[in-house]
Amino acid sequence: MANGATDRDGVRTQIYLARQGVVTGQMKAVAEKEGLEPELVRKEVAAGRLVIPANVNHANLDPIGIGVTASIKINANIGNSAVSSDIETELCKLQVSVNAGADTVMDLSSGGDIDAIRQAIIKASPLPVGTVPIYQVAAELDRMEDMTVEDLLGMIEHQAQQGVDFMTVHCGLLREHVPLAQRRVTGIVSRGGGLLAQWMMHHGRQNPLYERFDDLCDIARRYDVTLSLGDGLRPGSLIDASDEAQFAELRTLGELTERAWAKDVQVIIEGPGHIPLDQIEMNVKMQQEVCHGAPFYVLGPLVTDVAPGYDHITSAIGATVAGYAGASYLCYVTPKEHLGLPNLEDVRVGVVTYKLAAHAADVARGHKGARDRDDEMARARYAFDWERQFALSLDPETARRMHDETLPDDYFKKAEFCSMCGPKFCPMRISRQMARGESAQSTEGDEVEK
Asked: Buried b vs exposed e over 115-143: b needs ≥16 C-beta within 10 Å?
């Protein structure tokens, strides 16, 4: 740990230290990145409104802050399935995520050598790494019904020892909530939620993560794992949005938030996946109230169900609205959502799309410095500074490639037009000519237009 501070019980979490008045090295790093005062970061961490996912065993971590006082963060899901991908491919996905601007990654591997994949990702990742521990438990059992409570808690501790910074744990899905989901059109769409519901119904028992929540917190506290309290009953379609099942689980997550804070454990609250546009603000405001201001982590939400292949767009619309309403953390959706395991290009497109959503929401929220890049882009465009425009783009390589498809020569990197308007019809070129007192009928570039 940056400053080596602990109490005599071994508590080393950021929230514990913040409450003791300690500004850790991680807090200082977050403050520098966000342009905030370190003391403000400490106060927000102490209040639970800002989390710094930073497992004490993740050696090469570059800390980030997630909360309303920070810029909106995005997560990229990587990891294999039981039928596709390997360590090398997942490390390539990690690198694509880092290069494209993701703030965190989650390893959702559910097949092959899951341990080796995770260890390789943690070792290579400067970003906080998240997991859903129950996936590995299920993958290593012949039948989910055979899981014991110790299997699940043991896996959580094992992954914490490896260096996982935050974990999705579906603690709020109670046995009595399952019948509520059975009234839905699309039932339970969360993989982790579905596995726990299957176990509870088979054994006639309560959710072990709820019953043993104090033990779970003790594990998280030992390694400073941030608990991402999962929404196992998130709606998987617009028709099921904002229903009784969703909100029953949310109320339980509000209870567990306070219990985790009492144990000096950092908490994120996960939010719905499919929500009509007009219900998003209400959902965010309700989460903030019910869960006492803990950071809200949303998957999308998708605002329509009819666009397979384009769900990175349907969800980015919802993500922007959610971010503007107060969500702090956006889980990306790729074009493969509902269709298959994302490949490298899907990962890249998902990250860039969500960087756009997060940035647009930061601008709308008036986050300090968020619009500086936009204003600089406006000046670069008016100056026809093409190289600067590429550099300011969220995806510089794509911007350059699209420009060069029609005007590839170096000459055109200084030209006062692009191939859309050409030299005679470009209004910004005409505006510049008028400002210089030149004729708007200048024939520069006529040969190119012809």
From this structure: eebbebbbeebebbbbbbbbbbbbeeeee
Q: Among 320, 5, 194, which residue's Cα sits nearest to residue 15? A: 5
* In the block, residue with structure tokens 């943690």: 122
Task: Give the separation between CA 423 and CA 420, rounded to whole angstroms.
Answer: 9
Q: Which two tokens stand for residue 260?
A: 């985790």
Q: Which amino acid makes up residue 201? A: M
Q: How far apart are CA 449 and CA 444, in angstroms?
A: 10
Report the C-alpha gap between 120 and 297 in whole angstroms: 25
Could you tell me if residue 173 is left (phi over 0), alpha (psi between -120 and 50 degrees) or otherwise beta?
beta
Nearest alpha carbon to residue 225 among 260, 196, 258 = 260
Nearest to 53 by CA among 295, 170, 225: 225
Encode 381-438 in three state secondary structure. Answer: HHCCCHHHHHHHCCCHHHHHHHHHCCCCCHHHHCCCCCCCCHHHHCHHHHHHHHHCCC
Instruction: Provide the terminal-to-terminal Cα distance of the chain, rounded to the nearest Å.
Output: 65
C-alpha to C-alpha distance for 295 and 291, rounded to whole angstroms: 9
Per-residue pLDDT band for 436 (boundaries 50, 70, 90) equals confident
Residue with tokens 């959580």: 156
Q: Give per-residue pLDDT as tens, 131-152.
A: 999 999 999 999 999 999 999 9
pLDDT bucket at 443, cuts 50 / 70 / 90:
very low
Which pLDDT tens digit goes with each residue over 370-423?
999 999 999 999 999 999 999 999 999 999 999 999 988 888 888 888 888 888
